[in-house]
Amino acid sequence: MPRPEIDEMAETLMPPQVPRMEGAPKPLVPGRLETPPTQRAEAKEFELRPGDSGDDRPTQVPRDLTPLSENDLKAMAEAEERLLQRELREAEELIASEPSVLGLPSWLSHPLMGSVVIGMAAVLGLFVFNQISQALALMGSLQGYWLYGGYVGLGILGSAVLYATLRLVFLYFRLRRNRQLRIKGLEELEKRTKLRWLVNAKLKEAKVLLQVYLKEFPLAEGRERKRLVALGLTETMLMELARVRERLLDSDRWPSDDIWFAEFRDSFQSHLDEAAKARVNYWARRTAVGTAVSPNTLTDTMMTLYFSFTMLADLCQIYNLRVGRLGTAVMLARVFFNAYLAGQMQEMEHMTAEQIQNFVAPHIPASELLLAKVLGKVGAKASTGVINFFLLNRLGRYASRMLRPVTKE
């Protein structure tokens, strides 16, 4: 007989039996799911909370917000006006040819440079007067042909300087003042300014100015063309300039102003820059040779003035432009300074000659001391010529940079 403990254990281990359903189970047949009919809700008008627009979250307004007063509106308008005026001045300065003198504004640079020019002219005038007095006193001690030769030489030097000065003054009255264009500056200003319409207007104005400049440039047959040939612009270069000018004046073939300005700078102005560079080197070399062989201080000063004024006149003819008032003052100050420095180099020549002689003398026999003196004198004169070469070359590069219709930067 089974034990009661085993029966209880079997009942706990056996799973519960599922009760049988009466009849056979119905198979699951896939069919169409019937969706219960939905009732469309009728539109109802809801009342919005205060400050709620109904489209998004409620508008957030600061609690202490107050309407702007008349003083606030006036201050905002004045600040906007100051910003627009500053950008307007910046746009105007980008098509002006006035250089920057020590970063000073134009209203201070003009009187400052005017005072510098007057001061340099006064110092140079006193120096030249002193040298002429000494030269006349020295010529008074000469006799015969030497006396007449001295007067003739002094007259030729004075006439050459006077001719160069009058020629430069005549060109300044005849030529049109250069309004140098800073195209890249205008393009950068257009990217960040609120006066984009003004920048576009200035670009149009700059293009019109350059078109007038192209029309007035003397490329036709005649005396002006012959002068350009004499200044280093060959016939081949002039023919190329004429072809480029014809393309630039045909406004229908250029898709944008940027391409037009680039063509003017690279195909027209580049030829003028090349001729100007050659002319500057031409006069710088002659200044170096002339001051190296000149016999006295007065000759150095007069030749430096003549070469400087003649070079500036040639550059004005090459570009067919003249510099503005401030640029002219800067160039004249440099001319007077170079001429004064050329006259003061006579004492430096004596010091340089002594130093070269003292350096060479210990290395040669005593019978050749004359050679040491000659080497010292030649070395001193050569150093003077080199200094004057670099000074005039620097002046010419500055004048070319101020006479370009469009800046390279």
List descriptors.
409 residues, mainly alpha, elongated
* Element string (H = helix, E = strand): HHHHHHHHHHHH
Summed over residues and divided by their number, the pLDDT gives a mean of 76
* Secondary-structure content class: mainly alpha
Q: Report strand %.
A: under 5%
Poorly predicted spans: 21-33, 39-44
Radius of gyration: 44 Å
Question: What is the fold's blueprint, element by element?
Answer:
Blueprint lengths: L3 H10 L56 H24 L12 H35 L4 H30 L8 H10 L3 H21 L6 H8 L4 H15 L7 H37 L3 H23 L5 H36 L8 H35 L6
Helix pairs in contact: 3-11, 4-10, 5-6, 8-9, 9-10, 9-12, 10-11, 10-12, 11-12
Describe the structure.
The chain starts with a helix and ends in a 6-residue tail after the last helix. The chain is mostly helical. The chain has helices at residues 4-13, 70-93, 106-140, 145-174, 183-192, 196-216, 223-230, 235-249, 257-293, 297-319, 325-360, 369-403. Helices cover 69% and strands 0% of the residues.
